[in-house]
Amino acid sequence: MTSRFGDALDISDTIVAQATLPGRGALAVVRLSGARAHDIGARISSHWPDSARRATRSTLHDSAGAQLDDALVLRYDAPASYTGQDAVEFITHGGLVVPTSVVAAAIGLGARLAEPGEFTRRAILAGKLDLLQAEAAGDLVAATSSAAQRTALRQLDGGLSRRVLALRDEIVALEALIAYDIDFPEEDDGPIDPARIRAAAAHLTASLESLLATAPAGALVREGALVVLAGVPNAGKSSLFNALLGESRAIVTEIPGTTRDAIEAVLDRPRWPIRLVDTAGLRDAVDPVERLGVQVSESYARRAALVLVCGDSVATLTTAAKAVQAVAPDSRLMLVRTKSDLAGAEAVEKELARARDETGSAKAVDTKAVSAETGAGLRELIAAVDSLLERGHLPSDDLDAPLLTQERHRAAVAVALEEARAFADVWSTGAVPASVAAVHLRTAASALEALIGRIDVEDVLDELFSRFCVGK
Fold first, then answer.
1. What is the pTM of this model?
2. pLDDT per residue as tens digits for the range 178-194
3. Are residues 408 and 426 in the same domain?
C-alpha cells in the first residue's frame, strides 16, 4: 500500500494521531493503532486498563518521566476495534500543547504519525468497513446539514452497500443462467427459456435505473439546493435574505446597487439543505464593478434549482422576471412580492396575479407575499420552496432509500446500467453468441464491485483518504 506521497505504508506500523480538531477546547482524543499500541499506551500511562473498553483514569507521562496530563485511557483489543488492530484512545484535556505532547510521547516510543484517513483505511483492510461505508464516515464528519447527517448515517450502516450488493448478486445470478445455458443445454429440463433471461435482464436494468435516479437527490444532500434571490436594485432581496437566515448577513441600505457580489448561506431544512444566495440587482450597469456583480447574478440564476424573483410592485416583479428569463430561460421562478406590509393583502394578491400574467412564463411555479419587517409570509415561503424542491428532485416516495451521493457512485452505476442495457440488446437480437453477450454482465458486475471495494481499489483509496482529516 502506498501513501499519497508515494512512500510505502506498512499496516503493521503503530500509528498515532489526534482525532479531534487541534485548538482550544475542553477535551481532545489521541488515538493509537497497531501491533505495539498497547505496549506504547501502557508505557505512557501510570494506570493501564485491566480490560478492554473500560475507561481508566491515568497520569500520562513521556519516556523521560515528565507528566503530560491527567487523562482517561481506553484500550481496545484486536479484532474488536475500529481498525481491527490493538488500539488505544487517550481522552486528554484540550488545547494545543497537551494532546500534541501525548502524540509526541507516542512517537518517541516508536509510533509514527498517521496520514489522513489511515485509521479508516486500516478498518477497510480489516473488513470492518467497505469502501462506501468509509466514504460515509468522511461524509458524516463533513456534514453541514441534518439531511447530510441522516444520509451519511444510513450509508455508514450499510444501506447503500446492501443495495449495491443485491444488484451485483442479481447480475451474478443472470450470469449463472447464461453459463448454464451454454455449458449444460441438455441437462435437467433442457435449455433455459430465453424469456426468463429477458425478464431477468429487464428487472436488472430497471433496478439500476432506479438507483441511478437517486444521484440528483444525493447531490442536493451533499451540496444543497441552490435557491437564488434575484430582482432589481432596492427590491428587498437583502432584507428578505437576512430575515430568512434570522441573522444579519447582508448590508441593507436605501442606496441602489449596494450588493455588488453574491452572498451565500446555508439553511438546514428537514429534506434538503438550501444554499440561499443574495445577488446583485439585475440592471444595465455602467460601472465595471457593478457590471461584474450583475454577471455573477446571471450566472447563479442559470445554475439555480429555483429563483425567487423579488419585487415590491408589479413593475419591479415583471422587470426582474423578464431579466431572469432572458439569461436563464430554463430556470424555475417563484414570484415573491416583498414589503407586503406596506400594502393591503388584497392589493398584494392582485399585483402578484398581474405580474404573473404579464410575465407570461410557464416557469413561474408559484407566487408568495412576504414582509421582512414583520416576518409575515416567511414560513409559508420556505415551506413552498421545500415543497417545490422535493417535487422536482425526489426520485421516489421513499425518503429513506439509499442515495448516490458522489460522482464516483453515479459513474459506477451508470457503467453498470450501460452494460446491462447492452446485454439486453444483444441478447434479444441474437447478434452475438451468448458467451460474448455475457461479457457485458461481467463488466457491469465489476463496476459495482469496484464501487463497494470488492476488487483492487488502491487508486480509489488514495484519492478518498487524501480528503480525510488526520486521526480518522
1. 0.73
2. 876 665 555 544 466 77
3. yes
